[in-house]
Sequence to fold (382 residues):
Amino acid sequence: MTAKERILKAMRGEIADHVPVSPDISVMVPDRLAGRPFYEIHLDGREHNGWTSATHSEAYVSAVKYFNMDGFYMYGGLKEIRPEGAPEFMTTIKDVPEGKLAERICRTEKGDISEKEIYFKDEPPWRLEKPVKNLEEDFEKLQLLMGRGGWKWEKQFNDRGRMGDNGIYMGMVPVFQDWWFFYREGGFEQMFMDFMMEPQFMERVHEFWMEWVLANVRAMIEAKPDIIMLGGSSASLSVSSPQIFRKYELPFIKEATRICKEHDTISHLHICGKSWQLVEMVAEETDLMSMEPLEEPPCGNVDLKEAKRRVGNKLCIKGNINTTEFMLNATAKEVEEKSKRLIDEAAMDGGFILSTGDQCGRDTPDENLFKMVEVAKTYGRY
Fold:
């Protein structure tokens, strides 16, 4: 089987040739392997030392091939077709001691909105300033930036072939809390204050987002990715609550997964941190087919063996070796033992992808990632 075939089998609850293995290396590990300042890769990268990493997405593909793992490509998307003269961000790049500072400004008929993002030499980028600062005024400007309906996207993913058979190509859309956190100045505290203090206004924001995101889901399905991924890091119960999830996320997940099922497209949900109550909720109340990373303590609260027993007949489960401590500091032998245990606990009858919790750190030893892959290909054979 190819890596793509192997993952798709598992995500449909079926048995592959061996347990698919896809540690979450996301950003930091591929950028480290590329051997250049991270800001070059994310802003203006180019080929270096044989790595075809002109962009971070290509650095990820190179890393997938290096580890001989099964890839999850989530770096593309559909280009939106904007009306002529529509507002857009204009970017200025400045050198700063930490690396590069991107200052962006968008001029609308209702005034300007701005954001700032810093690009480091050896760390992922970080947003220093977000555009929605004054809730009602800046949301009006954001709507002008995004458009007020009738959204259109190109019919094809321009990087659709980049992953090839080395893994799956995912069309990714954000859940509401991820989307609002991305634009709203003030972090999680301000976002949750919006929910509590301005519930009627936030219902309007949510209604606008629902219209936009479901249009995006339909456009992505038409462009035929391998799966649709719903990105939900900010919905984690490490910061949010089941009540907020039920109000703002569940209606969307129900509708998005229904649309995916109607078009025979796999739906996959990412919620890191503590998530067990949400795992049960989406398994029981939606058409979701797969979920990750089902993190174990201390970062999460999911027992993979129990998850397999409780929801393994409804969801493909992907996870869940701790990244913040274990993958960074364990020996390769300890990684081998843990990988075997998870295969024993969750791989029976298929529907399991051996992985880590949320994103391996930059300095995760290569030998630990190689060992995960080795165990899946040998001990994890069906």
